Queue: 2 jobs
Job 1
Amino acid sequence: MRIDCVCAVPQSFGSFLDSSIIGRSREKGLVTLEIHNLHDYAKDRFRHIDDTPYGGGAGMIIQCQPVFDCIEKLKSEREYDDVIYLTPDGHTLHQQMCIELSNSKNLIVLCGHYKGIDQRIRDSLVTREISIGDFVLTGGEIAAAVLIDSVVRLIPGAVSDAQSVLDDSFMNGVLDAPYYTKPAEFRGMKVPEVLLSGDHAQITKWREQMAIEKTRNRRPDLLDKSEPT
Ligand code: ADE
């Protein structure tokens, strides 16, 4: 899989792209990640990529020209499954969307910054608009990092124990069960007896029950969705 990330502030990614599962997936060749700085596509010597909004209002808007130049160059080099724009007014990201995106060959991920991007970019280049939640971040780079992380970890081979991904919250339509590790007792708090029993059928049953209970308490909307209509 290849992801081309188009953004105004590449340094926002920090060490994220080289660390942990993402870093290892890149090393293993499971994913190619390229960051493109929109300022490299600016035409003036101050490398401006934004301007004030027509009609007035606060904030700056990323202009068409650098984004069109960058994305058209990428599209001339290969075919892309999607051009994703990260924006708080997009469709809210969920696990099923991540699974779908993890089957892509090539993706462009466009990050907004400042007040947003010129609507003509959205109308002509963007095929999918995604929000990571009902809150507003300073820039799309952090949202892109969230998207990339949640998608790349689903590529077969990215996470060493594939079962661990299958057990994640949302994978079965419910939240994940609680987990414990050694010691069996810490400050008087004991690990549930069933987990020490070695009875795998009982352990699976217990985890399923706990997952459903937690989902009923915290996210009853998820259970409603899985019920037949
Ligand atoms: N950019 C700013 N806020 C965002 C959000 N919540 N989701 C995606 N992109 C964003």
Job 2
Amino acid sequence: MKWESFDSYDALSARAAELFLGAIHADPRVVFGLPTGRTPIGMYERVVAICSREYHCFTEVTTFNLDEYAGISCDHPGSYCAYMREHLFEHVDLDPRRAHIPDGKARDLAAECARYERAIRHAGGLGLTFLGLGRNGHIGFNEPGTSFHARTRVVSLTQSTRSANAGCFANGEVPTEAITMGIGTILESKSIVLLVSGTGKEEAVARLRSGEISEAFPASALHLHSNVQVLTS
Ligand code: GLP
């Protein structure tokens, strides 16, 4: 695990955008795993700003989002689908057929999870996956206690995660379930960049630095991967 610390959120975002665009330059057909949340917004802003000056940027790129709330559709402002449209998809030449997000409104959520895993395999597997870090160490929506072998599935959200993500929902309307890529799915990505910024993450960062590997702390699964960069600010 390689660590890089930055003095500011802006500097972290600039470095993350450099890694993002570097991956496209190295392989225009790169398959990204993509996060949501507050942390990656600065990275997406920079990627969009730079790509808007280039003719083809995302033409052959494929993306898979890590997760989506269950029970809400893409039109809901709190959905990760809406987030991705706002922060990335509407601003770049990414083919909508290659921009994948689990369908939280699917009638059969288990079938949707299986379909998502197949789609990742069909695309050749994840190349570079960016992750954010939940205060309790969650990655995607893999909460403490998740098996490191877990695949894409429906999960219940902890109260702390629901409160942390309450901003986009009217009172008490934060969904209770979500679809998330599993830790096993994430660990199959060729490389991983974990972005850590924001208040209340100090304890999780210290725990990750400690080297402890335990399913009680989902992000610690990243110690089992040989190509992980952690960017902190
Ligand atoms: C949510 C997302 C995670 C994200 C986390 C941290 O729970 N499902 O993928 O990493 O929030 O979000 P933030 O960057 O807003 O702290």
